[in-house]
Amino acid sequence: MSIFEYNGSALVAMVGKNCFAIASDRRLGVQLQTIATDFQRIFKMHDKLFLGLSGLGSDAQTLYQRLMSRHKLYQLREERVMKPETFASLVSAILYEKRFGPYFCQPVIAGLGDDDKPFICTMDSIGAKELAKDFVVAGTASESLYGACESMFKPDMEHEELFETISQALLSSVDRDCLSGWGGHVYIVTPSEVTERILKGRMD
After folding, report:
1. Structural domains of the chain, ranges and CATH numbers in brackets
2. Could you report the per-residue pLDDT of 83-93, keeping only the tens digit for each?
3. Hey, CA dihedral for 97, 100, 104, 106, is it positive or negative?
4. What is the C-alpha to C-alpha distance for residues 165 and 116, in angstroms, rounded to an integer?
5. Distances 8 to 3, 55, 93, 134, 191 between C-alpha atoms, Å
6. DSSP readout, 47-112?
7. How would you classify the pairing of strands 28-30 and 20-25?
8. Residue 41 phi, psi dihedral angles, 5° rounding
9. pLDDT tens profile 129-151
10. Which UniProt keywords apply (predicted)?
11. 77 Cβ neighbours under 8 A, 6+ residues apart
12. Are 64 and 39 in contact (CB under 8 A)?
């Protein structure tokens, strides 16, 4: 088993019309044994920028703390919050810096940039960025997430339809992966508000 699969995870971010959604499962496991059913994988950097971290749970928390402190220093120095593209470059640089002993994480970054244009990207554990205009996925359920998102995604969805689409994609995908699941955690972000919802999923 790969160290990336040790705790199990499912992460997906999807863009809509001037909005985006980011969702994860809630299971923390040690291989096939479930440890917790309320594990947090999505972190809010500011109102229009969210970070999802799949992979090894302890590395995800360590990396989040490093990124949060760097973001706060940027805020103090620049007197503004980071744009999603800038934050993606920061994450990439921090991961590449540790390339000989990497964080076992695959980040998903989602945010609203200039003119409230949604930005999503993912990268591997050493910071190689992959940008997308529709959706990005990460984690042990990523193969089934690709299939579900490709069949359900439509461009320019309003935020309610986007919530429905990402929720159905997440729930149907984690049913096909024994290392992730036990409900879901979804954030829908529009220029004016952030909506957080908990999904109930199969508990087996």
Report:
1. 3-199 (3.60.20.10)
2. 999 999 999 99
3. positive
4. 21
5. 10, 7, 25, 24, 32
6. TTEEEEEEE-HHHHHHHHHHHHHHHHHHHHHHSSPPPHHHHHHHHHHHHHHTTTS---EEEEEEEE
7. unpaired
8. -115, -10
9. 999 899 999 989 889 999 999 99
10. Cytoplasm, Nucleus, Proteasome
11. none
12. no
Which position has the token pair 């929720």?
A: 167
Tokens describing residue 151: 């069949």
Amino acid at 19: C
> Tokens 């309320």 sit at which residue?
38
At 132, list the tokens. Answer: 């997308």
Structure token digits, residue 125: 């554990």
* Residue 4, pLDDT score: 85
Long-range contacts of 168-171, Cβ-Cβ distance < 8 Å, separation of 24 or more: 169/12, 169/14, 169/145, 170/10, 170/12, 170/23, 170/24, 170/25, 170/145, 170/199, 171/199, 171/201
Specify the amino acid at residue 55. Answer: G
Residue with tokens 């919050």: 81
Whole-angstrom distance, CA of residue 48 vs CA of residue 50:
7
